[in-house]
## 1
Amino acid sequence: MKFYTEYLWFNTEKKREYINITSTLNSILKKSGIKEGMMLVSAMHITAGVWVNDAEDGLLQDIDEWLEKLAPYRDDYRHHWTGETNGDAHLKSLLVHHQVIIPITNGKLDFGPWQQVYYAEFDGKRKKGLS
Amino acid sequence: MKFYTEYLWFNTEKKREYINITSTLNSILKKSGIKEGMMLVSAMHITAGVWVNDAEDGLLQDIDEWLEKLAPYRDDYRHHWTGETNGDAHLKSLLVHHQVIIPITNGKLDFGPWQQVYYAEFDGKRKKGLS
Amino acid sequence: MKFYTEYLWFNTEKKREYINITSTLNSILKKSGIKEGMMLVSAMHITAGVWVNDAEDGLLQDIDEWLEKLAPYRDDYRHHWTGETNGDAHLKSLLVHHQVIIPITNGKLDFGPWQQVYYAEFDGKRKKGLS
């Protein structure tokens, strides 16, 4: 059994940003030499998410708007008593989940026809990690 | 370490359909001969979900209604500019997540008392895969 | 390849309760002797969740309030025709997901700076299991 871990760092320019990391993950898989197994893609921050979905700009805007509707920015989250202003980012992270697992088959990430992996930053402009 | 992959295909009759795949997964586990480990059940489509919950018809209707409330069909999703009409199905998929992992202990799927695995189709009447 | 399974039991005092199980998981990892791999933390009940997020009391109250807004208690869930009263707990469980995977690196749970694991009970005052 072989394990390979790599950490990625993101420093987004916008507060909320959705980054397609599929080709990065393909490179990591190649480097690892793993042929069968699973790749865990897991955000290391509690205000970020990871999902598998379509790479389509309109859809990304729909998702962003939808997340803001279901888990809106609000001044009066209790969490803000700590001095933070990112209560909504925690809720958005819970909503989309912070990790996915990609099956590896014959040395390839075993995706369906349109599956792409996104790192979703909900509280950006800080340095953030992913393993 | 042993790996075993199987692909399932669904061709649903309705737009939204929830299929209990627990017994299918039990058969696959038997075929694989794996005694300890994990089974990843992951939708290969970006308009489908996989969840673990109760097998109760009323609850399935409640879930369907709830998903339609939180991620409703709308004409004006930006994603529809591509000619698609399934924006809501993408959002529903993000909401329930597209995969689960089932622990395997002593050659059995290690479920709690009421846990059943569902494949949730949110944009059906097309052929869809699951690995 | 080494596998180690442990079951935890919770008997909460309140209907909804959020229990930080991070230190318990650290003890289990130590006992297991596993140095590289993944730890699956998966609720065995269909009215419970498991998530990774911040250990901050205000935030936990925000999350609780938010979940009650998105998946409220209602008298008229169809699931209640079975005699149950926990329809909302099933929906809350779907919303936050019932499991997480924690990467294990160098014999440690490989968390980001603020990541803590919570067991979320949505239908408490019964004995519940986690594997």
## 2
Amino acid sequence: MVAVVGDDFSFEDIEFLKNRNVDLEGLEVAEGQTFHWEGLYHENMNMRDTISTDLGVFEGFDPKIPETVKTAEFLLLANIDPALQLKVLDQIKSPRLIAFDTMNFWIEGRRAEVEEMISKVDLVILNDEEIFQLTNEYSPLAGAKMLLEMGPKFIVIKKGEHGSMLVSDDSEPFICPAYPIEAPKDPTGAGDTFAGAMVGYLAATNDVSPLSMRRAMVYGSVAASFTVEEFGLGRLKDIEIKELDSRFRELQEMTEF
Amino acid sequence: MVAVVGDDFSFEDIEFLKNRNVDLEGLEVAEGQTFHWEGLYHENMNMRDTISTDLGVFEGFDPKIPETVKTAEFLLLANIDPALQLKVLDQIKSPRLIAFDTMNFWIEGRRAEVEEMISKVDLVILNDEEIFQLTNEYSPLAGAKMLLEMGPKFIVIKKGEHGSMLVSDDSEPFICPAYPIEAPKDPTGAGDTFAGAMVGYLAATNDVSPLSMRRAMVYGSVAASFTVEEFGLGRLKDIEIKELDSRFRELQEMTEF
């Protein structure tokens, strides 16, 4: 993990990551406030309005990549200023798969840099609104095909409770189900969980075949289904791998015909 | 088919149905105007506002069921005044499966009758907004489970381009994909096509096993994907069964993991 947090960040949360064997050599604790996003979710939780985005210590962040990370084969450039994503990308030697996430905030304010990033990565993960923002296409599938022309091999379209779709030039789309949750509490971070678990699955299996890409998305979907069940990391903190596996198999049964 | 049209209805459209071997003994042509609905679709085509609903000859319609129809085993009560749906239901002897469709207009104006119908049928087909209207549940799955308690064996939740879901007490939900269409022209009638093709598949196979229910939904989904590609019956009029089969198989490939 390469990231920056402010000196307001809780020690317990860092300890938690350590105990889960996350390599924190690239985690910088800087003077100032941690990045902060505030938003309002509509009642159906599929739409949200941003109230404020405070960059805090992100503003002056100059990511320094530890030597052990420079040879990483799977790289997820999570949502952050695209100029910083570019700086990180330039320091990684020859990753096998580069995944890229962003959000409406950067597409609005840093469009050129976002487009440059899209042209340099393998896998772009966006929700349907962000695809519309970038391509002006109401059909996310048509929009994803426009984005493929900019260079990436894969586009993942996230649609919240409606699941997601994988679009690539090589094969027909994959329609990935969302695990149905009757009483979601907080969708914040579901997209990050999805992207993290998806790339984590690819790195763990070291397999980017079409079937592995599909299964990685389903693991992302399943992991995100736990995120929305509680606020913050509430549910993720005590999750066990067998619970992920169990929802994965359930989704196989729920989609079979 | 049991229905009424006004004397403004085109002869060509009746001829078309005859040529497709639709039994039209139950089709009444009455003096006055055919039912007319007018609405405005939002740009993403997933939401629409009703501008006007003119019942026309529906207003005085008293459905008379031909003897040959009274012994039908599969009955689809398509969207119409629930009082009329009830009259039809009362005249059918002992159908094996009764499917029921309705719309926001009737839920608003005839709620008690809609609820009575739900308690009397086997399969209820509604979109996510209608389920919210009936149950006040933002989660369509939670809403569908509330509807199951009113009596039906199956609830189908339609979600437009996001597919549909089958919910029943007997087994876990089925997540049914929508066939992705890049440039839909007109979604009007997609829900009717879905319901008609679904019940048509069940009647043709005479099989209401869990697997057959799932496949019936996928055929409904595939048939609806053709409806939205053109205005009116444009695309449905020249469709061949092998085209339906081909999209069915494509959907199997698009959902496999």
## 3
Amino acid sequence: MENYIEAAVRAYLQDAASDKPAPGGGSVSALAGALGCSMGEMAANFTVGKKKFASVQKEVEASLARLEESREKLSELIDEDARAYTAVTEAQALPKNTEEEKEIRKQKLKEALKGAMLVPLNIMRNCSKVASESELLAAKANPYLITDVGVCVIMAEAACAAARLNVEVNLKYLKDPQVESQVREETAKLCESTTAAHENVLKKVSETLDA
Amino acid sequence: MENYIEAAVRAYLQDAASDKPAPGGGSVSALAGALGCSMGEMAANFTVGKKKFASVQKEVEASLARLEESREKLSELIDEDARAYTAVTEAQALPKNTEEEKEIRKQKLKEALKGAMLVPLNIMRNCSKVASESELLAAKANPYLITDVGVCVIMAEAACAAARLNVEVNLKYLKDPQVESQVREETAKLCESTTAAHENVLKKVSETLDA
């Protein structure tokens, strides 16, 4: 198993494009979310320590710290998703000749699918946080960086939507109605808040560009 | 100037987050577009060479080749954008003590801003192509990979929208009404077709997941 966060960008893109089982859509979503963090952090970094923005310094510093934390988590999820998906393909490859083997395979596959579903769910949770930070930054950070805050929320929203597809496909194979309804409720809320932040921030970006 | 395509994913994210002028929103958009390519290519790579999909082999192979080309271009644009933006900050740093210096600075800045505007425009053109390939793949490629085709179009659409913000902000500073109206016409068309592909493909993804 590769450690993709330390791999070259080109190598990551190549492995994602290949017929290797991982990295796939979940890992790519985590990376897109991390890219969103970076753009928010850049806007914050061009705000803190500047006299002109002294009045918002504390708030923006706190936002920066939260974004750094989300980026760290999303960076871990780039590789966690690849590992979780590999566990699914490994379970699928287990023998199924006897009833006992079939039962073991079924259980292992169920566990692996649940793991593979929880990783993109965790990606969505982090992307929703990033989207929320982008709203703070659009209101408070250095307006010279407003398009970068826009890119932050675009990436967070896209990563959240992309991760959701990976939650959905694993729920489909998992076939556990109780888990399904609980997770669906959470993903709907996460997408709703992220989409709302996306709309608000891009409105603010347009207003700033038109000014 | 770094060669970001060969940098580690973590290092890229770190530099993007920092108060270095580059990589910024344009470079991040190019990377997001390249991630979209990779997801489309993965779906194509799990289709070509498989008996079950022999009837679509040629079409999917051709799509794969086009996506590889777009990924190559978008990969180059990750670094081109960083270079183009650095040229803007260099022009801004030129002396402006005499009238002659002011005139030289103005011209250099104009050239640099035009360059910085053309790079994200080029990113948008490539993302629009990727979105179009995702429509072909959603219809023809191995349906087991349908969520990856979904991630492909989500990334292409987000990258196109993010790159557009970077076109817009450079147009704002460029202040050239003729260039502006011409470029705005093109960006509107590129976003329109990408958004349409996004809608079509995600509808297909939902239908497949619900089946």
